[in-house]
Amino acid sequence: MPTLALRARYLVEGFISGKHRSPLTGHSVDFSEYRAYQTGDEFRAIDWRLYGRTNRLSIKVYEDETQLNACLVLDCSASLAYQSREPLMTKLDYARTCLAALSLLIKRQGDASGLAIISDDIDHYLPASARPSRFYETCQRLDAIEASPDSAFARNLGRLSELLKQRSLVVIASDFYEEPEHLLRVLNRLRFDGHDVIGLQVLDPAEIEFDLEEPGQFMDLEQGQMIALSPEEIRESYLQHFRAFQGELRREFVDAGFELITLRTDQSPMEALSLYLARRL
């Protein structure tokens, strides 16, 4: 399999995205409003013509095409190691490929990206940077990670706000198999701290359709025991619970004012993301 960096380059090639606009402000070409001069403001920013008319020191405030600061978050929970069949990627491989492609796309826009890899702790953290080397650093960290049997993803995701020093776009790649109340608490914390969130829910098609044919061992989540069953025996019940879970997860994101995109590992990552990203980045 090609290296992660090469896979990301292949996916991003041909994807064209215009500069995003932001409500954050800075010195640029689009005038927004005046505000009073304050100690610490650049002296050269004073509008002297307005001062001549009003005898007040004022500064022009502009709407700026500000630099995007993105934090790419990878969930390394054990469930991400799932792969129903060859040649599909595991959910973890698919998730890291998506994040690597986004890192490259952000780099090509001249924006800043960082990385947080989370399992039973925040295992790796790279603050947002627009350095050209950030893409390669991101790929190196992503490539070295394996799914962890011990995970507290939602709890550690909640600690991420402590590391983010400025408002950021937080892109989370996970299957989001978490307790709903824990995840909602984390999403609300990120919203309260001024961050925006995109959830990339990575699922294997077998998890969505439950089209398994061979008998196998299934985990009873209430009893914590493995039970030998035929998929036909539990398909209807599984699909009913899965749809309920998906509906609740989507509501959590909507209630927090964020967006959730469900990706299947039998789809090209960039094909699945391209229409959305063309609007977003």
Automatic annotation (TrEMBL):
Residues 33-242 form the DUF58 domain. It comes from the Bacteria. Transmembrane segments: none annotated. InterPro entries: DUF58 (IPR002881), vWFA_dom_sf (IPR036465). This is DUF58 domain-containing protein. It comes from Puniceicoccus vermicola.
